[in-house]
Known about the structure:
Layout: E1 5-6, E2 10-13, H1 20-28, H2 42-59, E3 63-68, E4 74-82, E5 93-99, H3 108-123, E6 129-134, H4 138-146, E7 150-156, E8 168-174, E9 186-187
Antiparallel strand pairs: 1-2, 1-9, 2-3, 3-4, 4-5, 6-8, 7-8
Helix pairs in contact: 1-2
Amino acid sequence: MAIELGTDRLVLRSWRAQDRAPFAALNADPVVMEHFPSTLTTEQSDAFVDFVQAAIDERGWGIWAAERREDGAFIGFIGITPVSFESDFTPAVEVGWRLARPYWGCGLATEGGRAALDFAFATLGLERVVAFTAQSNQRSEAVMLRLGMHEAGEFDHPRIPDGHRLRRHLLYEATSLPPSAGGDTRWT
């Protein structure tokens, strides 16, 4: 059974057919994708949705579609997933997010990330969750810090070629969830 998480302002849920077009637009936005090797085509974006929804179908949790509670607007994704490459910090579960630009700067990534971390620790019983981003991605690093995560080092992302400006990544981790800054997490 797929888990759905809720916060005061968000619903983290399984993906729907109507999420595909706004997600493809988000993934084609060069500003949103500035800290990734490239934007995604519609086909690549749809393949990502298929992949993450299959994981939710299998485990009940994963990279959820994120919608704004007040109006049902699709805003991007927030969730947790096993790290899919080998590194000195794996195996591990990662918390991550990607939001469309209109939803930046209002605390939604932090609110949803907190709900995902709460689920990881309280429900799944995980002892550690990681997050990582390219060194240049100060916005994501700020979310990690607001989530109470601690810097755990740096690494070269194995899926980014040597010499690429985004290869070097920052690694953060959490081993427990700090007290909430507001709003309770609900799941069904």
